[in-house]
User: Fold these one by one.
Assistant:
Number 1:
Amino acid sequence: MSLQKIGFIGLGLIGGSIVKKLHALHPELTMIATAHHAETVAEAYKEHLIINNTPCELKDFADCDYIFLCTPTKKNIEYLQQLKDVISPDCIITDVGSVKTEIHREVIRLGLEANFIGGHPMAGSEKTGLSNASETLLENAYYIITPTTKSPSPAVEELTGLVRSLGAIPLVLGYEQHDYATAAISHLPHVIAYSLVNLVRESDDENEIMKTIAAGGFKDITRIASSSPVMWENICLSNQEQILKLLDNYIHTLEVMRTNIADADSPALLDAFTAAKDYRDSITITAKGALKNVYELYLDLIDETGGIATVATILASNNLSIKNIGIIHNREFEGGVLRLEMYDGESLALAVALLKKHHYTIYER
């Protein structure tokens, strides 16, 4: 590896995971970091991930080959402005933010196009912070790379190789293309999920009948409404232009659907549902994407004492941990009494095989 020194501004889940993986791959690599909390830097130093035990000053980043901006988008832009007169001519600054247009426009304004390559690792967890970072977090996750028009080709190739070494799948896109795509497959779905949950909340009666009978299907399509409200407020405002464009298209789609239902236009409804089903069925889940994967299975279970405990024991005796468990009371359109959520795909596959071996009927969705 030709890189000698890498700096990190922010050591949260993503930044911390990159640091840990790079350290595992290249223990000789010099890495420095600063973070909002001094104890985070001290923790990273204690784990021998970085060479400084207190937060760096920005001048300490002057001789870095790469600088990773791993704070929220607005803060990344502030640091970008401060780093302009600090970095060496050959330094490459990259970020890990989920919205790219805003920071790219600031890069252009600052004249830093030759020193910046945007990045977006499409991985995450409900847990945060360095203590929850993992050197395997980015494995098989898409990592979008968004060069500027002046990013040196060798630097883009080098960053692509670095991303691949992290176990991630690099994909080079234009920054506006990235924001439009993520608005469609991540940002808009979150807006829809939050809106649908609020619609049901506002439409429910005082006995909360809707909440009581909400089935797995409703919970599946609204699961992401449990994400951080603050984070999604920031994303919606940062990617406002693309989200509004797609939201207008979605509203038009709903209006067409409403017309078809009002007109009892059976062929049009069938065509729409069939087209959606065919497209959805064509999506293969081969890597982590913008929406966090859920590794779950459903199984039939006789209502008897110790039934759930037996399932848990089968899995525990094979060193498989259950992340979440629940009884599905409304199964009008789906099979499976008991829902089990595992921590990863490998655990899910093993759980399915084990439970089938014990003659449980399994439903995977």
Number 2:
Amino acid sequence: MSNTTVRAAAEGMPEINRRRMLLGLAVASTAAATITVASAAGCAPVEHPDAELFRLEQEMEAAHARMKRIERTSSRADKKARKAVGPAPIQPHEWEKQEPKMPGHLSEMRQTALKSVLFVNFLSTDWEPAPVRAWRDAAEKERGRVRAAWDEYHAKLKELGYDANEDAFNACCSEHDEFAKRICSIPAHTFEGMAVKLRAHVRTGGEIEKEEMYLDDYAFASIAADIRRLANGGTA
């Protein structure tokens, strides 16, 4: 859905603060948890127009609970493993940031030698003075030592099962996010149904305070489409 379409849907309510309306939806009536409602004529209960959204929300809540349980288990395993292995060595990418620069006198020596080097020989380091090459060799040796220390540390963590639940956690995250996508792909017919979409948006880490997200976010775009459809008598 384009931003223009979403904006048009929102502008149909000039006297309403859109953000406050969306916040209100987040704490909508507990009627959203009821799958069936009685008909106005007092007949047998009929299914709520947004019953499918309510069911998906319940499934999403169950997936969220599973994800949190695995997250807590993983966190405990990670802390236990790190405590057993001991202090972590510096990570290779952090060492690269702190890698010492070539001393000034060696840099000057290199620049002097460079003046007599032909272009075709530039990529080779054979032309560099011996002290410069020795410094480079020492730096490369230290780089290798840092990488080896980190690899050994990481291997010990894996042996202790610090990431044993990582695959299960990632699967739960994907399942959780997929529920949000499914919820937002289904048209809502009531404000309770729209509230389900907003709660799904927040559950997956979305925000409702940033004004610019109103036009760009998938959940808000879906809600805006619902509002436009209802404003047109449910025919859009």
